Amino acid sequence: MTILTKYIEYMDGNHLLEGFMAWDDTVKIKKPGILVGHAWAGRSEFECKKAIELAAIGYVGFAFDIYGKGTRGKNRTENAALMKPFLINRELLQRRVLLALDVLSAQAQVDSNKMATIGYCFGGLASLDMARCGADILGAVSLHGNLSSPSNTNGNKINAKILVLHGWKDPTVLPEDVVSFAKEMSAMSADWQLHTFGDAVHGFAKTGTNDPDNGMLYDETSDQRSWNSMRLFLTEIFS
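Predicted structure:
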């Protein structure tokens, strides 16, 4: 196994974005492509590492960029300020994720008929919105992501299979939010699953998360369980 990586610059109008791609160069056939959506601080080493881990199990991983090349938050205040415009304008968020899908689909190593997306926190919302828009993907995974519905996808049908991995004690996504999401998915005729981890809070699958006062804490057990669930899901959708 030889994992190769590269950065890919791409444009949204005049806005420069930069993604990170990883693949096993010893496998010469085209492989399924999986986008990795970043948390609220922007694309970081964490998401790039996940792209590499996906490459190691047979996929092409692509940690995409929503904010712009080099744009990173350094604290909660900066992170929230970076994320806010995309929560207000979900069409902008959707345009950025669909652009990333186009970029990954065009890579020579990728089987563009076998695409999926995963995302952590804010990236989970981005992944779900990709599916809500009817993107040509087979699956979308949200790990402790925001589940709120946008206003511009009502009446759409979701063709991708959906997997939500959720910490039950997450203070940012309450039980009533989960119920609303379930109703939305059913109304959109989605094939959806929701796995909840009873003692987990927000950020349970993102290593280094350590802000228990604000309901954010990494949990190794829930992280491993969620990764295993996701691997089974990916095997299913690409079979």
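Summary: The first strand starts at residue 3 and ends at 12.
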